[in-house]
């Protein structure tokens, strides 16, 4: 799929999702009970101007204009019942997709939409007559928006501005004004469903599988990668843990971390007897529970070691800087002061390195224990046949194969042909006729293909044989020489 088709698909998907989201929230979350959707040519003039500016030399500018996305817009009018059949319009929303038209026409990499493009598109709506002026305008872009353009959402104005940029992972970067964040209209611009957001979370978790299975992923890091607020990421993490029994959360120094255990949690399939066993009788934890406890302990140690590694990196850079300063020092007093700082820095590096080595050994011990318990538990969960069953089935299979081989040999030895002796003799006679006819057909072709005598023999003189000592040809009798030939009348 080329870029133009992909952008066209993005435009159609955005308008479809916005209308679907509005219909889902009517009467429950939004202060409106009906929405009227109208298609508007809001971007037609922009597309036409772009073709006139950058695509005038095209073979068919009109066809180019018709093939470019970005000319379609939508108007959503939200209404609420006031009294009986009387309704009042509460919000008028205009939605449009801003496309990188220059890159689509001239080719090349498409960048995010800049602030000037947004101002020009917004000015067209703000200049409308007051009865037609929208309450809010939402602009979407498949390539996102620049930081300057995203800062325009908080600019003062009667027409509120909402920007929605497409993300590479399939999500949205939504920028809304501060006054709209706590209003009931904020959920209207959350176009992703719960399953789609959980899918994006799982995508990022799989992308960082090494960290997920070692020190875990911190919640602020996940929120930055997903482009969502922290409270929404917490809800998504809990939903992902509910769906995947291997995912678990660990709190380290007040920060929530997401990690993955080698064994799935059995709590989700726990019946009433298991609940009584764990909470009433206080019996020892199951192997899966023990593995999860060890995994949480390992995650905390891994996170602590990661912090020590970062501290070691900073101390190493500081030591190299002090080393260079000592080399460039002008006098001994300055060198002595720098030497003292470098000595303290190197001493601190050795201490931090010792702590990191201790944590590494602890992590190795816990990891080995987790590995052994995981292998033992997974081996118990798979029902394998016993040695007696394997031997019995092997003997039965061997006996069956021997019987089959005996039957096959017997069938090959007693096979009766369908040809009688008379039929065989007749077939042999026909074959001899075929061979004789083929030999007769090949004889004339061989005779015509005999080689001619060499040119030296053809050019030899009649008396050459006599000169060579050969016998002379016999002369005709005298009577025959004098006999006259009759004339032809």
Please describe what this structure looks like.
The chain is an alpha+beta fold. α8 crosses α11 (230-243) and α13 runs antiparallel to α14. The chain contains 19 helices and nine strands. The strands form two sheets. It has a six-stranded mixed β-sheet with strand order 1-2-3-4-5-6, with helices on both faces. A three-stranded antiparallel β-sheet has the order 7-9-8, sandwiched between helices. A hairpin with a 2-residue loop joins β2 and β3.
By oligomeric state, this entry counts as single chain
Strand order of the biggest β-sheet: 1-2-3-4-5-6
Overall 3D shape: extended
Strand content: 5-15%
Structural class: alpha+beta
Taking all Cα atoms into account, the compactness measure Rg is 47 Å
* Fraction of helical residues: 55-70%
- pLDDT averaged over residues: 84
Number of helices: 19
In short:
The protein has 489 residues and is of the alpha+beta class.
List the helices and strands and how they pair.
Blueprint: H1 3-25, E1 34-40, H2 44-54, H3 61-67, E2 73-83, E3 86-97, H4 101-106, H5 115-126, E4 136-141, H6 147-150, E5 160-166, E6 172-175, H7 178-181, H8 194-207, H9 209-212, E7 217-218, H10 219-226, H11 230-243, E8 247-252, E9 255-260, H12 272-279, H13 287-327, H14 332-381, H15 387-413, H16 421-448, H17 455-458, H18 464-467, H19 478-482
Features:
single chain; 489 residues; alpha+beta; six-stranded mixed β-sheet; three-stranded antiparallel β-sheet; 19 helices; extended; disordered C terminus
